[in-house]
Design a protein that fits this description.
two-stranded antiparallel ribbon, Endolytic murein transglycosylase, mainly alpha, two-stranded antiparallel sheet, lytic endotransglycosylase activity, lyase, 14 helices, Dna Ligase, domain 1, transmembrane helix, single chain, 3 domains, membrane, 365 residues
Length: 365
């Protein structure tokens, strides 16, 4: 009996050893499989070749599913694994891929590839470029566009003053456009909202809506970068663009825009009129090399010599530097500034100092 019991104990120990060994082997295989899968997926999420930036033409047909797009990208060597790409897109909740002809490369990350496919950056030839410089007014912008496209300046201005169309734009761009632009004193609703930049189009004569909305897209893109700062200063986009336009029109190439902004804010704080000449010129509706005392009496809500506070709306399109200055003015005690014939700007604290500098430099003109 003892021999049989001992034998059974040995058999049980052997079975336990076998089970332990088999379990260990299975666990090791599982760990190797998991580790291998992890490394494979990690590799598949990386660019195919970070050094290979040679453009590869990729055609995405209309109606292509994510699976079909993934297969095309894998076939072209843009991604390593179509299945991994498909699950990555699903996990990140990406959508809205657009059909088109693309130029991608093997050095692109998955996010860069996805961004290209979502934004529609296709390899179409640019047929029209329109450059809008900083500080231009709406009538000047209309003239530039008319010259480049063949539209008449008058019909472009009519489009930008079409109330039905403006209402459509307010619905499309609620983050930057509001009923403020319909203030009864505002000359042109979209004044100051068409961002200064170079715009490329794939048509020789795109629609007026396409051109206008490309500029509004850019304005929205820029302003949304400063959403927090606008909130801190309790600025609406309209108020920000209005202040920025004053800074833009007063600035020269050598100007410290932050100091100009500080003068405006210092005046607003003490209830002093802004007294900035560009608003007078805007009120007059014409350009002059010099503003005379009789001009300062023009009866217009834009005239900041006779009306305190900001004008009803922007008087020109401001660049990003002026927008930044409006949001982050310098901390100064300056109440006045004067541009010299050489483009320098002299800042002073008192009217006496300002008049002294003004007499000095006006005498040189």
């Amino acid at each position: 009996m003892e021999d049989k019991f001992t034998e059974r104990q040995k058999d049980a120990q052997l079975v336990r050893k076998i089970v332990l060994i088999v379990s260990a082997v299975m666990l090791l295989c599982l760990m190797i499989a998991v580790g291998g899968s992890y490394l494979y997926i990690k590799s598949a999420l990386q660019p195919v070749d970070p050094k290979d930036k040679k453009a590869i033409h990729v055609s995405v047909p209309i109606g292509s599913s994510v699976s079909e797009i993934a297969a095309i990208l894998e076939e072209k060597g843009i991604i390593k694994d179509a299945t991994v790409f498909r699950y990555y897109v699903k996990f990140k909740n990406h959508a809205d891929f657009q059909a088109g002809e693309y130029k991608l490369n093997r050095a692109m990350t998955l996010e860069e590839i996805i961004a290209s496919l979502k934004t529609g950056k296709v390899s179409k030839e640019t047929k029209l470029k329109i450059t809008i410089p900083e500080g231009k007014q709406l009538t000047q912008i209309a003239a530039i566009i008319a010259k480049k496209t063949g539209y008449k300046q008058e019909e472009f201005m009519a489009k930008m003053n079409d109330r039905n169309y403006i209402n459509q734009l307010i619905k499309k761009y609620p983050s930057i456009l509001s009923e403020e632009i319909f203030n009864q004193h505002i000359r042109y609703p979209l004044e100051g909202y068409l961002f200064p930049a170079t715009y490329s189009f794939h048509e020789e004569k795109p629609s007026m809506e396409t051109i206008i909305e490309a500029m509004l897209d850019k304005t929205e893109e820029v302003l949304m970068k400063y959403e927090v700062e606008m909130g801190e200063m309790e600025f609406t986009p309209h108020k920000l663009l209005t202040m920025a336009s004053l800074i833009e029109e007063e600035a020269t190439a050598k100007t410290d825009r932050e100091k100009i902004a500080s003068v405006f804010y210092n005046r607003l704080r003490v209830g002093m009129p802004l007294q900035t000449d560009p608003t007078v010129l805007y009120a007059l509706g014409k350009h002059k090399d010099r503003v005379y005392y009789k001009d300062l009496k023009v009866n217009s809500p834009y005239n900041t010599y006779i009306h305190k506070g900001l004008p009803p709306g922007p008087i020109a399109n401001a660049g990003e530097m002026s927008i930044q200055a409006a949001l982050k003015p310098a901390k100064t005690d300056y109440m006045y500034f004067l541009a010299t014939p050489m483009g320098e700007v002299i800042f002073t604290k008192t009217l006496e100092e300002h008049n002294r500098e003004k007499a000095k430099y006006i005498g040189k003109q």
